Amino acid sequence: MSRTFNLIIVFSAILAVTTSCFRSTPIAEQSRYNTSGENRFKLQSTDDLYKFLTYTEQRVPLISAHRGGPTENFPENAIETFQHIASKMPVIIECDIALTKDSALVLMHDQTLERTTTGKGRVNRHTLAEIKALRLEDNQGNLTKYRVPTLQEALEWGAGKVIYTLDVKKNVPYKLVIDAIRNAKAEAYSIIITCSANQAAVVYNLAPDLMISASIKNIEDLIRLNDNDVPDTRIIAFIGTRQPDSKLTDFLHEHGILCILGTIGNLDRQAEQRGDQIYADYLENGADILSTDRPFQAAKVLDYYIKKRNLASPYIN
Q: Please, what sign has the CA dihedral across residues 37, 38, 44, 46?
């Protein structure tokens, strides 16, 4: 019996729910990236990714590095930053995708260039060549030698090294992102972030084999996804930025769905003020993946948690 069918039976008895929620360019600078180092993940197919992202009691909790894990001299959304953090731990890289004037996909969070680069103006008013001429700045405003990568470059670099959750910015067509994933043969390590059941349905209809990060803050959100024909076997749940609701996480776990907790913001600050051990509390309350701005601090706690419980995965080296 499918997990979706179980969901409908269980909640029809206790809930009355009215359903409703939300190009490839030449890689001129590919060789400059450091591709050395041992691979972290053994994910050869989408089936491997599905199995790895299905909840079991032996699941290995992971860090998701928000915007790639920027730190001093390592800017956000840069492949060199991804390499820096991936050399320290198995990591999910959350990164942001924007569109240039000439329809190239680049990694950039903001709609404008000022905060993170030496450029000025809106990203979508500059060509890829113009953006490639810029240099990246770290979050402290220090100029680095690094440049804005294309999505294609990032995907090709990431094989075996990281898993990506791809935050597709406004006005960037999902089809272009999916095409880039196909071109890089990155299906086994790419997850597309969506913010509503409608968005998730669009992605699923375009690419039913790909994994989707779906916003699930309550049980009704999962029902809406099912009503939009998005199977929970393709879902990893983003459960918000507050302390996990154990009733929700228990329910999602019963259906094999892993939970991403956004500790970015208040929860990271609480850990900084009260002690990093609080990250273990988030795991005990049902989080499986911590999306954090403090990946190195959180990883130390997760490492202890994993060793204490003797957790392991055949998909992690």
A: negative
